[in-house]
């Protein structure tokens, strides 16, 4: 399982881009994790699923609301990772007002979540394989802080906790 001080493994997540920009066409786009993290400080939150009660009411909204404070603390980007497809992540991001604040990254097959050792198997309840709920602060691909919630809990992966850790990080 992933821990503080670890280099994140390589992998690919998918981001649905709704507006064409230079070098980025519309549609699902692969995001090479190592390339996207290079030279950056990134706050990452991961959660069991888009449109789920705790994730939609508390977890993601606080990161969106605190985006400017994260930026002021030296965080270049905030990523939200979930085991959903990129279309679902894009729709959820639209509903939550995440555009320009939080990158909504899909791990549809849970391959990256498995590489991190963060799988939460809810197959018996009909939800399949999901991600555990966690947050982490990553600097140039290395985990500086990791906050892993117990299954079914939302206690330490919140925006306030990770923001405080980001503010305490010396660059």
UniProtKB/TrEMBL annotation:
Pfam families for the chain: Redoxin
Domain of life: Bacteria
Record domain Thioredoxin: where: 2-168
Keyword Oxidoreductase: yes
EC number of this enzyme: 1.11.1.27
Descriptive protein name: Glutathione-dependent peroxiredoxin
PANTHER family the record matches: PEROXIREDOXIN (PTHR10430), PEROXIREDOXIN-5, MITOCHONDRIAL (PTHR10430:SF16)
Function: Thiol-specific peroxidase that catalyzes the reduction of hydrogen peroxide and organic hydroperoxides to water and alcohols, respectively. Plays a role in cell protection against oxidative stress by detoxifying peroxides.
Record keywords: Antioxidant, Oxidoreductase, Peroxidase, Redox-active center
Family named by the database record: Belongs to the peroxiredoxin family. Prx5 subfamily.
Record field: catalytic activity: a hydroperoxide + 2 glutathione = an alcohol + glutathione disulfide + H2O
Gene3D superfamilies named in the record: Glutaredoxin
